[in-house]
Amino acid sequence: MALISALQFLRLNDIPEAWVDAVWEVEFTESIPLDKTIEEELIARQEKSFTALYQCLLANADQYQSSVWAVLGESGISVKSLVAVLSFFVLAGKSKVASGHQRVNSLCAASVYLLLLRIPGSIGNKVFHEVLLDTCLDLTRHCWPQDSEKKRKKDLKSSQTEGKRSKPQRKDSPQMEMEEEEEEEVEEEVHLSGQDLMRIRDAVALLVQSLLRLLQTFPLKDSPQTMIHCFQIFSNLLYFEPTIGKPVFAAEQDITKLRSIPEMAFYGLQLLCSPKHGDQKESLRRVFHQLLYVILMMKKGNTGKPSLLVPSQTILATRDQAIQFVCHLVDELKELALPFLQILLQHICFQMVEKNEYRSHGAQAVGMLTSQMASEDYACFIKWLCNFSRSSKMVHRLFSVDVVMVLLEQPERRPEECRDPDLVCFLMHRFLIQNLLFARRMDESPTVQGHALNCLAQCLELPSLNATRAIHNLFCASENTLTHRISHTLKTYRTLPFRTVELSSTDTKENLALLLRRVKDSKTNVRKAALQALLGLLKHDVIPMSWENLQTLSERCRDPSVSVKKKALQCVGDLLSVKPECSVVQKAWLQGVVPAVADSETSVQDKALEALDQVLLSQVKPYSAGCHLDAGQRLMWDLLGLLCHECQNLSRYFSKAFTIWSKQNKFTPSFISNLISHTEADHAAGAWLLLSKVVSSSSRLPYVSHHLFAADLMSWLKTFTLPLEVISSAVETLYQFGCSEDIKQTQAFLNQRCGELVSACESYLASIILTDNGAQNLDEELMVKHLHTLGVASLQCPAKVNKRTVLLVESVLTTHSEKLAELPASLPLSQFKANWLPTRVRAHGVITLGKLALQNEELAQKYLPVFARELEVGTEVSVRSNVVVIMCDLCVRYTNMVDHYIPNISACLRDKEAVIREQTLIMLTNLLQEEFVKWKGSLFFDFMVALVDPVPAIASLTEYCLLHLLLKKNPEMFSQHFIECIFHFNSYTKHKSYNKFSQSERERIHFSLKGQQYREKRFQIYCFLLEHFTDAQRFNITNKINQTILACFADEELPLDADGANILSETFNILSLKEFKLQTISSSAGAAAGEEAEEENMATMAKAVLQAAQKKVVSQVRKKAFIENTVPLIISLKNLLEQKRSPVLRDLMGYLQVTMQDYRNEVKEIFSGDEQLAAEMEFALKIAEKERATVEQVDNDSLAGDGKKAQVRAQCMCSSDCSFKTL
């Protein structure tokens, strides 16, 4: 018979019975030595013999069935011996040093054994043995070389440490031993050729096919351990090799047509879910549990946490197949599989890691799996997801946002598909946006906040109309906007009621205000995300294109963070491309991009220059009167028009861009020619501006005739019809054309050209001022242009300015009893006086007079007292505003002379006109930056008062100037002036050292913040200063307060009168501020709440340990200083205040109560010198603790409606992390 012939190579009749008995006795757990001759003969057998035996058994299985055992018995072949010999081959292949030939034979022997088990009667004939079966199944792992993965790990470790000099990380000994064993194993493994690997792969495929044939007929319900083993084997085989093509999942499949081992593994998992193998629910649970880690791209061992797999193409493909397989099982088994699908989804959410790539793939998996759900089941999952989004773990809240974004990409489900009316609301996209996504805008974690805001912006790009409408409802309320109210209740896990508030106009304004605050958040990623969200809202017209909203965007182009600056530049650029016709957007773009040219970061400079080049320079084309300007050209001239008018303050930044471009040779002859062709068009102002910048930045322009062009310029200037900004640009261009290496030649050119302009202006002014009918002939615009031209031209030719010119300009600002035919030798100019000339003319007269003074020190000395007087008594806003500008310009030229008048300028920080306050703030900041002005006298305190300006924009500008411009130059500035702030703002002058600088009575009254009515403003200033102290500065200022304030009152150097009591009371209140606490102590080791990393590494652990040690040391130093320096003063002051029955005692006890919160268990130790005070403090702390607990309880009760609800709510929220079933 063929079967008996196929068995001959095993030499079953020559195998000793004693050996067979020994093998069965050890239950196939170890290899028993065989006679060397027989063993060598068996080992030498080729796999062809096993293949022939396997094919013989397979071909005749249906024919023999149960009679095969009789045939074997009749032939004298012992089944027991056959199984023992097969186990000999199986165990030989398990060894790490097994050759390729041995491994193939081992796999083939295991396949034969599984085929024997498939034949009916195998259990009766004692073929089945659970240990041997498990060993055969394990061959798929043992025979295939595992060294590739271990070698990759070893290479990864060596590459990480290569090139680094660091201390070796200490390993726990078990881990070290394990790694050493692994390395030894890798070294011991034999080398397998490519041909060997192909033969082993085919043998593994044969073994898996045999297992599938076994599972089709042989039930495993009585062998639960073997069944669990099968689940593990199949899940591991999913990664065995890439699958060619798309796998097909079906209930019945031809095993021989399955091409890849992963396809066989999926079919095996499906067979295990058959009723013949036991409880289908339990089988489904195990399958879903194994596939959970495939979907999560993790590797789960028998113990410990799962480890992440590198998301390669193969891993991702296997993950996608696993998701498709789950969908197939749900489709096949319907109601039986749906509960496990819910649990699988929950586990995917709960076991997700923080890494972005894994979260993204995980969310996609959730989206694909939920698409298999009916609407009611889907609504239940969304309800669960809503609760999950409030988890205490940051990564859970982060992942819930990812899931929401994937679900929003799916078609919205119809309400009629859900039979339960309480679940209908969960089907809507509006619910996902407003109740899951938008709710995360207030998350305690900056990472979640930023991600939610980013996704909010993406929602506007979704095709779903309802999603877009939901965003509109959040930020704009109108009569046409549909309002929705969900009357159903969503319960958190079981009992927490969920409320949806109908959005009113107030709500939408609050939402927008919150978003604008997020743009200024302390965290970089939150600011970037908020910028993206704001851009989306503006692009899609969800919020108005107002200057307030756009200014927020442009301001972030000057953010301290480089990445935020780049993001803001990108946002204003995107907005301009979408709304090129909007003038407010154009202005915001200029205000954001142009100053970025002077940024300290080169990459930001480059980005700004690239934007300016693309929008402005590249759009300069030849002009033709009949030619229509395209959109890009219209935008360019609109922007240049703004630079000439509303945005003139950006001129110096714009000039720097041209300086950089000139070095890059961007100004070609054709570019200049194209630009000149626009000088007579309607937008000539912009062309002249560009031309002036080009000429000023280029050392020479050989292709332009300087003399001819200068003559043209002069002819235009002499018409006095050009706009003011064009006049300035034209004179600047004239100067550039006249520049040469010979200074005398340059000055001669300027004296000739600009001298002509000065003479023309002088003649015109005389014709108006010195004639009887001057008032009738006055053209205000023409007068202003002559004054402006005189001012800018005089700067280029000071020698051509005579006394008559100066007196004519003076006459613009003073009054006379009668008209003068000729000017007197001088005018008694003690202050400006109103005359018949319009205010605008007089304002320009101030500017012109200042420019004349810039070139003449005697004039400057003469006019400075007049300017200072005008600041005090003047009534015309524009005149006084220009006086501030001129005095600050004079400070640059004549620093020592103007230094005496700085208090007059700084007094304008409290001017009744906001425009003058803002102008003064900007000008003084520039002078302080360039160190033309020092922090002397009351200047610092004047700036502090500007911090509490009634106009929020000015207060915000002051904060920006102090923090981002001035504090960087002098980091000690705040701490140096802090104590004097206490005395100055309370107008206290009795201290021997502080508040002794000279100050006029007018200035003292204007800047006084004394009294209870200004207490809030004073403390606003104190808090601002303290927030920007370093811990070292806080520590030092505490000691300084002890020495200069508390000690002075304790020693009665300062009287404890009404003013003294106010100072002492304020000092204790300042010391009680939370901003006064050392940040090292007040911030816990996990300062970023919710920012816990899913996987800890050595760096973060070391940082945490360092922070804890630092906190401990600082706390000890602070405690020692408090006991040695502060406590004796406090005891002395307490006794003194008790004697005088002063109300300040209450503030002292309040300060102690706040301070002793950190030492509540050490009260007696600290106040060992005053037992009564120690007892009082202990009592006060206990009372405060009770009051705090009561307040918290009241708050909780008010949130839930009553105490019982609060308690239930707390219990529910605490159980949120364990309210899902286990797989």
Automatic annotation (TrEMBL):
The keyword Zinc does not apply. Residues 150-188 are annotated as: Disordered. Residues 879-1032 form the Condensin complex subunit 1 C-terminal domain. Keywords: Cell cycle, Cell division, DNA condensation, Mitosis, Nucleus. One of its GO terms (molecular function) is histone binding. One of its GO terms (biological process) is cell division. Residues 177-188 have a biased composition (Acidic residues). It is found in: Nucleus. It holds the Pfam family Cnd1. Residues 162-174 have a biased composition (Basic and acidic residues). GO terms for cellular component: condensed chromosome, centromeric region; condensin complex; nucleus. This is Non-SMC condensin II complex, subunit D3.
